[in-house]
Amino acid sequence: MSENETELFHQNKKAAENGEEVAMYNLATSYYNGKGTEKNLVKAFHWYQKAAGKGYFDAMNNLAICYTDGEGTEKNLEKAFYWYQKSAENGNQYGMNCLAKCYINGIGIEKNLEKAFYWYQKSAENGNQSGMNYLAMCYMSGTGTEENLVKAFYWYQKSAENGNQSGMNYLAICYKIGRGTENDLEKAFYWYQKAAENDPFIMNELAECYKNGEGTEKNLEKAFYWYQKSAENGNQFGMDNLAICYKNGEGTEKNLEKAFYWYQKSAENGYQFGMNNLAKCYKNGEGTEKNLEKAFYWYQKAAEKGYNEAMNNLAIPIKKENSEFVLKSMENGICYKNGEGTEKNLEKAFNWYQKAAVNGVVDAMVYLAMYYEYGLGTERNFIKAFYWYQEGAENGSGFGISKLAMCYKNGTGTEKNLEKAFYWYQKEAEKGYQYGMIKLAMCYEDGKGTEKNLEKAFYWYQKGAENGSQFGMNNLAMCYEYGKGTEKNLEKAFYWYQKGAEYGDGKAMNNLAICNKNGKGTEKNLEKAFYWYQKAAEKGYIDAMNSLAICYKNGEGTEKNLEKAFYWYQKAAEKDVYKRQEYGDGKAMNNLAICNKNGKGTEKNLEKAFYWYQKAAEKGYIDAMNSLAICYKNGEGTEKNLEKAFYWYQKAAEKGYIDAMNNLAICYENGEGTEKNLEKAFHLYQKAAENGDKEAQFNLGVCYEEGIGIEKDEVKASYWYQKAAQQGFSNAQYRLGFFYKIVKGVKEVLKNPFKIVEKESLSANKWIENALKCEKVKFISYKELKNVEPLDAGKFGEISKAIWTKTNSYVVCKKLFNSTYIKNDKLDAFTHELKMHMQLDYSERIIRCFGISLDPNTNDYLLIMQYANDGLNYLHYENILHRDLHSKNIVIHESNAKITDFGISKNQNNQTSAYIGNFGVVAYMGPERLKNSESPSPYTKSSDIYSFGVLMWEISSGHLPFKDNDNIVTLTVSIITGIREVTVPDTPEEYEKLYKKCWNQEPEKRPSINEILDEFERMGFGNNATSKLVEVLQMFAKQFVKWFVLRTEYELSYKAEKGTGAGTILEEEEEFEEFIGEILLIYNNKLFVSLLEKFRDIRDTESVSEDDESELTAKQKNK
C-alpha cells in the first residue's frame, strides 16, 4: 500500500463524509479493492449505496454487483436487478450490459431474451466492448432476435478492435470456419495471436494453429510452447493438450510420466477429456502403474460430467484397432463386460452404451444395437437392434451401415429386403469401406438386390483389393482365373492370390497353393504348393489342412509322412466339428475316418472311423453318408443295423451320390433295412447307371434280363451289360457273351471265333507229303528223338520237349492232333506255319525249323524246331506278318531272344497265302483280328505291332495280360469294345505312350517296327536319358525273357533228368539274381525297384511248381 494511495483514501473519505457523491464512489472502490486501506466489503457496500442514493450511475452498477454476489451484504438478486436497471436507464453502458445478462439468465427477474438483446444492443452502441461481444453472440445464435451471421461477425470485429479478448477469440473463430465472412486462416491466426497474451484459453487455440499449420507454418515446438503457457496459466484444455504432446513426443521429447501428470492436472481441474485420458493411462499403465480400479473411477467421473465418450468407454473397448467397430472388439477391454476395474456387469455396460447413444455417440449406437442383437445386458430385441444400427448408419458409421445392410439381407428386426441391403452396401462402398466394396461386388455377382452384373462385380472386387481387402484380392483372383466379368488371365489370378496370401488371407494362401500344385499362372512347384498349404493350414483354413494332409500322405512337395497326414486330417476334422452346420463340408472328417479305417498314420480303429464318418455325414458330406451306411450294413465300428444303413444310403442318394443309389437299390431289391420293392430298386439302378456307375449298369442289365422291377428285355439287358463291360466290369464282360445276337459286329465271332479260311490249300496232308518228296522239308525220323515229354498245349496241339540225338541238343516238337482229317482247321494252320519257315532266310532272330517228323503211334505230324528269339523287325523286313506274337512265342537261344510259332503268319506280298483266321492267344490279338470272320480285316504289319504293344505292357507289369479272365468269349468282346490293361504305377511315361500307340484301336494309327526301334533308341528315364540307361533296360528285358523260357526248360529237364538240367537252371537263376542286385545298386530309383521286385516276385512264385517243391535242395528253397 503506497503513501499516495493512503493519502488519496483519506482525501476521498473526508470528501465523502461531506456528501460529495464522487468521493463516496471512490471511497467505496478503495474499500472494495483494499487500496489505501484494508479491504472491507461491508464499508464498500455502504458507500456504493450512499453514492447510488445520490444518483451516481457507476455506483448504482457496482451496488447491483454487491447484491448479485452477496458482497458486503446479503445476496439479493431482485435488488441487484433493480440497481442494474437504474444504472442502465441513466445511461451507464456497464449497467446496460449487466441488465441484459439479468434478462438472458433470469437473474432477479423473469427470463426475457428480447429485452436481453435490447440492452446488449444499447450497451454496444454506447461503446461497451463486452456488450458488443454479447450482442454478436445474440446474432450468431438467434437469441432475442433473428440469426444474422454477418451482424454477428460485425460486432465480434468491433468488440475485438476495442480490445475485448473474448471478441478477438470469436472473431478468430469466424475467420477460421467462415461464419459471417469468408474463411481466412491467416486472419484467424492473427486474432488468436492478439488475444493470446492474457487469455490461457486463447493460448490453447493459438497452439492448435501452430500444431495444425492453420494460418501459419506448422511448428510443433511453438505449439508445445503455447500449450505449456496455457496449462501453466490454469487452462484445463491446455493441460490436456500438453499431456498429449508429452505422450506422443510432439514438439518435445516423449515423456509418459509428464503426460500422466498433466492429464491428472486437467482431470483434477474438472476437464472431462482429461478425466477420460487419465483413465486410459491407468488402464494401460502409461506413465504410471496399471490400475483398473482408478481407470474405472475416472471413466465414471468423466461420464458423470456428461462426457459421452467416457460413457462409451465404460462399456466399449478402450483400444480400437480402427474406426470400424468389429464384433470381436467386444471381447477386448470392456470395463463392465469383462470386469476391468469393477465387477463384471453387462447390465451396466448396456446402460452406459444407452446413455452415450442417446447423447449422440455414433459408436455407442452401434454397440447398443449389438447388445440388443445378441442379448448382452438386456433382453434380445432384433427390432431395437435394427433401430440403433439404422441410427448409426444414418450418422455415418461404416460398421452401422454394414450391419444395417445385413439386417435387410437376413430380415433381422425388419422385413427381408435385398434391394435395401444392396443400397446400404453401395453407400458403404462409396464411403470407401473395403467391406462394403466386397459385399457390393457379391450382390452384383449373385444378382441379389440388383441385376446380375459380373463386370461390376469385378470392378468392386478390384476396388476392394486395391484398398487392401484380403477377401477382395482372393475374389479378384477368382474372377481372373475363371474369366468372370473380365478376360481369363491365369497370370493375374496367380498375382492376386499371391497378394492376398501375403496379406494373410487363408483362402488366398490355399488357392495360391493350388496354382503352384497345378501350374496355373506359374510353373508347377509342389514344394511351394506344400508351403502355402502349410501357411493356410496354420491360419486355420480347413480345406488347406485337408490338402496339407494329402501332401504328407502322397509325399507331394515334402517327404511322405503318414503320421503328419493323420495329424492334419484330425486338426481339420476337429475344427470342422465346431463350425455351424451351414459351414464346413466334413471332408476332413471323412478323410480322418479313412485313416482310422485303414490304419494310415495311426492304429486301425473301426470305432473311431465310424465316429468320424458319422460326424462328416451329419455335416452333410455325401461320401461319408455312403461310408456310414456301409459301417451299419457290415457292423464295422458299430452294431450292424440295416435300417440305419438304409437311412444313410437314402440320404446320400437323395443328394445325388451315385454309389449310394446303387447301394440303396440293392437294399430295395433284397429288402435290407426296408420293405422289398423291386420297382424302386430298378428305378435307382437306372438312375445310377445313367450317371455312369458300372456296377449299377450291370445290375440294370440283370433287371432287364431277369425281369426285376421291369419287364424282361434282352436287348436292353445286352445294352447295359455292354456299357458296364466297356468300363472293365468283369461280370458284365462275362454275361455279355450270352447276348452275342444283339451286339453289333460281334455276332459271328462269338459263334465261331476261331474259323479259319485257307484259300490256297485243299489238302494239307497232301501238301506235306509233296514237300517231303521235293525235299523242301527235311524228314526227321521219330527214332532220332528221345526223352519226348509234353510241355504245353498250343493252338495246333501238343508241344513237347525232346533230345535230338543227331545234335544231342534239345528241340521243341509241335504235334498236330488228328492229322488224318485232311480238312481239319488246325492241320491247315500247321502246314501254313511250315510254309512260312520254308520262305525264310533264317536270321539269328528267328527260330529255325529243322524239319518234320511223324509219330508212328498216332500218325500225327510234328514240327521239329530250334529255340528262337525276338525277330519282329526281321520278319517285317522279310514282309512276314507273325500274327501271333506273345510272350510264350518269344524264347531264348544262345543268350538271344527269338520269335517262334509261325502257325498263322503270312507273306504280305503273296495274297494267296492270306491265312485269314483267328488262331493265337486272344489277349495279344488286335480288335480287327477278332471281328466278324465273314468280312475279315486283312492282316497287316500293324497286327503284330498290336501284339508287341501288349508284350511291352507285360514286360512292364510282370503279369500276363488279362490273367484273371479265363473266358475267351468275354475277353474277345472286351478287346473289341476297346478295353485294355491298366498301366502299372511308376511305368515311364514315354514307355507307356509307346505301348498304348502300339495297341491303338485303329491299326493305321499304330507305329511301324522301325519307329518303335527309333523310339527305344531315343527313350530314357528321368533327366539322364543316356544310352547306358537304355542299354540297361534292354538287358533287363532280355534277361527277363531268358528267365521266362528257362523256367519252362527247367520244369522239363528236372522231371526228365532229375537234376541234369537243374544245375544249369540254378546258375541262370543266380545270374539273374546278381543282375537284379547290380541294377538296384547302380540305379536306385522307384521305377527299377518296382519293376525288378515285381519280376522277382513272379519268378519266386511261378518258377517252381508245388509238386516239385519238396524235392528241391535247401539252396533251391532259399532261392
From TrEMBL:
Pfam families, from UniProt? Answer: PK_Tyr_Ser-Thr, Sel1
The family database entries (InterPro entries) matched by this protein are listed as: Kinase-like_dom_sf, Mitotic_Regulator, Prot_kinase_dom, Sel1-like, Ser-Thr/Tyr_kinase_cat_dom, TPR-like_helical_dom_sf
The UniProt GO MF terms for this protein read: ATP binding; protein kinase activity
- Please name the SMART domains in this protein's record: SEL1 (SM00671)
Tell me the domain of life: Eukaryota
Domain Protein kinase residues, every copy: 785-1019
Name the Gene3D superfamilies for this protein. Answer: Tetratricopeptide repeat domain, Transferase(Phosphotransferase) domain 1
Q: Which PANTHER family match?
A: ACTIVATOR OF C KINASE PROTEIN 1-RELATED (PTHR43628), CHITIN SYNTHASE REGULATORY FACTOR 2-RELATED (PTHR43628:SF1)
Put simply, this protein is called Protein kinase domain-containing protein
Give the organism the record lists: Rhizophagus irregularis (strain DAOM 181602 / DAOM 197198 / MUCL 43194)
Instruction: Give the lineage.
Output: Eukaryota, Fungi, Fungi incertae sedis, Mucoromycota, Glomeromycotina
